[in-house]
Design brief:
With 191 residues, this protein is mainly α. The chain is built from ten helices and five strands, in the order ααβαααββαβααβαα. The strands form two sheets. A three-stranded parallel sheet has the order 1-4-5, sandwiched between helices.
Length: 191
Amino acid sequence: SVPGYGLREYRRVLEGADLPAWNPDAALVCLCLNDVAYVSRPAWWKEAFGGTGWYGFLLAVNHGVRPFSARETAVGEDGSARTVLLGEAPDRAFAVECLEGIRARLEGAGIPWGIVVFPLRWQLLEPEPDLRYQEWFAAWAGELGVPLLDLYPPFRAAPDPGALLSDVYHLTPRGHALAADLLVPFVAEIR
C-alpha cells in the first residue's frame, strides 16, 4: 500500500520514491472520503465549515450530520450551522491532479496498480446512503482502465456491517479481516 495521508501525500511519496529499489509486485492506493478531502485547499474548508476543518466536519458527521446530500449542513465550532454544496468543492479537480500524478509515476515505472475504496461507517448504517464518492472514483478509474475494488458492497452485505468500522472510517479487527479477504484476489488480479 502506498504510504501517506491523503492523495496529496501519496503523490508526494511516490514522486520522491526510488521505485526500482522498492521493487513492488503491485501498488495499492487505498482511499476513503477523507483522503480526497485532505487534499482540499484549507481556505475552502474554513469558509465552508466555519473554521471546523475537515476533522471537525467528520466529527460532526459522526454525530448525526448526514453528509453528501444535495445540500449539506455543517456545524461550526461556535455551534452555527452552514449550508454548502459539496458538489462544488474544489476537491474533485485537485484529486484528479493527484491521481494523475500517482498514475503517471506508477505506470511510468511499469508497476501494476489499483485503487481500493473504503466505505464510511454511516454509509453502512443508512438505509439509502449517498455513494457519490465511490461512484466518482469508479468512473475515473473506469475511464482510464485502472482496476478498482469498492469495499462498500461486500461490507454492506456483511452481517452487522456497522461492526466493521470503529468510527467514521477506521476498521475494526472484523473489518480488517474482511478487507484482507477481498484484497488477496484483487492484488492477484492486478499483478
